[in-house]
Specification:
This protein has helices at residues 7-17, 23-30, 34-46, 70-85, 91-103, 111-118, 122-138, 157-170, 175-178, 181-195, 204-222, 239-256, 262-275, 290-307, 315-334, 343-349, 351-368, 374-394, 407-420, 470-480, 506-519, 527-537, 591-602, 605-612, 617-632; strands at residues 53-58, 62-67, 142-146, 150-154, 397-402, 425-431, 446-449, 461-463, 492-501, 541-542, 546-547, 560-572, 575-584. By secondary structure, it is of the alpha/beta class. It has a five-stranded mixed β-sheet with strand order 9-12-13-11-10. A hairpin with a 3-residue loop joins strand 10 and strand 11.
Length: 633
């Protein structure tokens, strides 16, 4: 597609590069008629007086550009260049662009002006506006139209600012039209000056978010749009936050010649309480209260219940959770979410920790009836990822030794294993092959065997010589130094491969898949209810058209993965989905290994396209197995 140009910017650049340019030359460059070229020059010229330039014409020579105020001209050009960046945006980016454009108007704006800004037709604008209205609705905002005037946004000022921030985060190209680089520097300097001698600590991401909040406040106050009322009962907010907020407001007032109301200062104080890292502030110690500790323990207990991983003795995890929950609960109370620019990377690299965090926030939903967004879940996921890494380093492998060569040989082999692998092997339990039926594998990581095993075993098996040869030792060291292998034949089965689903909604697809699982005896009759309960707490969709739903509680005593391939993609939590893995793992399963293996499948759009085109189970499984082997190499 040919690149679209901001016509005003194009004309000014042409005139700036030449002493004189005739209308014929200008028309040829722009690809328009002489008459249109002259009309365009007149339109640009009208904006010159207030923006530091004028366009002059001389008979026989053409047009020339005269710059009367370099600073104002550069500011104008920066704004036009920012608008140029927006011309080739995706539909989603244009939705945020238009939403912010209308939101930032001091009065009405006409549809023709919006079309001119983006160089789009009215039919395209109508398509965009349907999405804009949905976006506004999420923040309690509406569009009010007035004949011959245009449209404007109506709603509470705080809601407008929340929507403003959301649009900026998703359409950065528009920021330069609203904030000059000098404005941003001035806000950062006012913030730094206020923080001098204040025991207040922010992460870099939180600081960036606070700067953005203050810049939005400056823009809205310049337009005579102030927040009103009280953000919070003053008795519930530490005095230090109020004092620091007032210092920030005074610095901004002096720099921008505006006035911050008491309500504006109050909301800055709330922002500070939502963003501070938990540590000593002012004259007070930041004490973890009983409510926060109870909430953290409820999260840990919920994870133990679902994943069979007990973090109750992990003091560092408890402290990290409580430290994060204090400002999180403040953000929750006022819907002031912090953007996490790494959320997609965190979900991709730590899928199991992300799932733990999603389950953990279900406790918050139950107690506060508020959903935690993906940005916050991602922050919690890093806390659980750290706890999982500590657990791996501390935990030794428990082994079941299967030997049918007599008690003496079994004990000798057991002693050699304990001596050679004392740093990696914890408890070794022994049995004969005939005793395998009654074994509980919940706390067993590996089975070492000197005989062929016919039973279905849910953990990795390593075959050894009764005398433990050098080759055995080498293989054991290699295997014990890496994660447990994932045997796909223990998880997938042909009966749960559904390659041609023709349904229209997420609920219909999940109902069909759950019914198939229950009918074949893999899970209990309430499976669908448990899957839908999990869907309430956070999305189970991944990019590239894949969803991996699962029940909120595991009740099955065996692994299963039900594969659903849709004939036509459907809308599933705001994403189009064509491939579904509905799974549940038995309590003995290595969930971390499973999520990592599935992550290899989920992160490549080309692989997903290949899988969604497969109708044969054997081809499907072989393709995934080859993928995992390549990733290990």
């Amino acid at each position: 597609m040919a690149q679209k140009h901001n016509r005003k910017l194009h004309i000014l650049n042409i005139l700036r590069e030449n002493s004189y340019t005739t209308s014929d030359q200008l028309a040829g460059i722009l690809g328009v008629s002489d008459k249109t070229a002259m009309a365009q020059v007149r339109l640009v010229s009208r904006e010159g007086e207030k923006n530091g330039f004028r366009i002059e014409s001389k008979r026989g020579y053409g047009y020339t550009l005269k710059i009367t105020d370099e600073q104002r001209f550069q500011t104008y050009m920066q704004g036009e260049m920012a608008e140029q960046k927006g011309l080739d945006q995706t539909l989603e980016e244009r939705v945020y662009y238009v939403a912010l454009l209308i939101l930032n108007q001091e009065s009405y704006i006409k549809w023709d002006e919006v079309c001119d800004r983006l160089y789009i037709s009215k039919s395209t604008l109508n398509l965009i506006m349907r999405q804009v209205k949905k976006l506004y609705l999420q923040y309690g905002l509406t569009i009010h139209g007035k004949p011959y005037y245009g449209v404007k946004v109506e709603g509470g000022e705080l809601d407008c600012r929340r929507c403003f921030a959301c649009c900026l985060q998703n359409c950065r190209t528009y920021a330069d039209l609203i904030f000059t680089p000098e404005d941003k520097v001035a806000v950062e300097e006012a913030l730094s000056k206020a923080f001098v001698n204040a025991s207040f600590d922010l992460t870099e991401i939180s600081r960036t978010s606070l700067v953005e909040y203050l810049m939005i406040a400056v823009v809205r106050i310049r337009q005579n749009r102030w927040l009103t009322g009280k953000a919070k009962d003053p008795d519930q907010l530490d005095t230090e936050y109020g004092e620091l907020a007032r210092k920030i407001a005074v610095g901004l007032e002096n720099r921008f010649s505006i006035l911050f109301s008491e309500a504006e200062i109050d909301y800055i104080a709330v922002q500070l309480s939502c963003k501070q890292k938990l540590k000593r502030f002012g004259t007070h110690n930041m004490v973890l209260n009983g409510q926060t500790q109870d909430l953290a323990m409820d999260m840990i207990n919920r994870i133990a219940e679902l994943f069979q991983i007990d973090f109750s003795a992990d003091l560092e995890l408890k402290v990290n959770l409580c430290s994060h929950l204090v400002p999180l609960l403040n953000r929750l109370a006022y819907n002031f979410w912090d953007e996490n620019p790494l959320k997609m990377d965190i979900r991709r690299e730590y899928p199991f920790a992300y799932e733990m965090a999603t389950v953990a926030v279900s406790v918050i939903y139950e107690q506060y009836r508020k959903k935690v967004n993906e940005d916050e879940i991602s922050y919690l996921a890093t806390i659980f990822a750290l706890a999982l890494e500590r657990r791996k380093k501390q935990k030794k492998k428990n082994v079941l030794l299967v030997c049918d060569h007599g008690q003496g040989t079994t004990e000798l082999l057991k002693l050699r294993l304990e001596e050679e692998f004392k740093d990696t092997i914890g408890r070794i339990r022994s049995c004969t092959s005939g005793e395998l039926e009654g074994i509980n594998y919940l706390n067993i990581d590996y089975v070492f065997t000197t005989v062929e095993i016919q039973n279905q075993i849910p953990v990795p098996i390593l075959e050894l010589s009764p005398l433990l040869t050098r080759a055995d030792m080498k293989e054991l060291k290699r295997r014990l130094q890496q994660n447990k292998e994932l045997r796909l034949d223990r998880y997938f089965c042909k009966d749960l491969f559904l390659p041609s689903i023709c349904l229209e909604s997420k609920e219909q697809v999940l109902k069909q898949m759950c019914d198939q699982i229950v009918a074949l005896g893999y899970d209990s009759a309430d499976l669908f209810d448990r899957v839908m309960e999990r869907e309430k707490y956070g999305q189970t969709t991944y990019s590239h058209c894949v969803a991996i739903p699962h029940p909120i509680r595991r009740q099955a005593d065996r692994h299963y993965v039900c594969v659903g391939i849709l004939e036509k993609p459907i809308l599933w939590d705001k994403q189009e989905i064509g491939l579904v893995f509905l799974f549940s793992l038995a309590k003995s399963a290595d969930l971390d290994a499973f999520y990592k293996a599935m992550g290899e499948v989920l992160t490549s759009p080309n692989l997903v396209r290949e899988l969604t085109g497969m109708k044969n189970y054997d081809d499907f499984i072989k393709y995934i197995e080859n993928l995992l082997k390549q990733s290990e190499e």
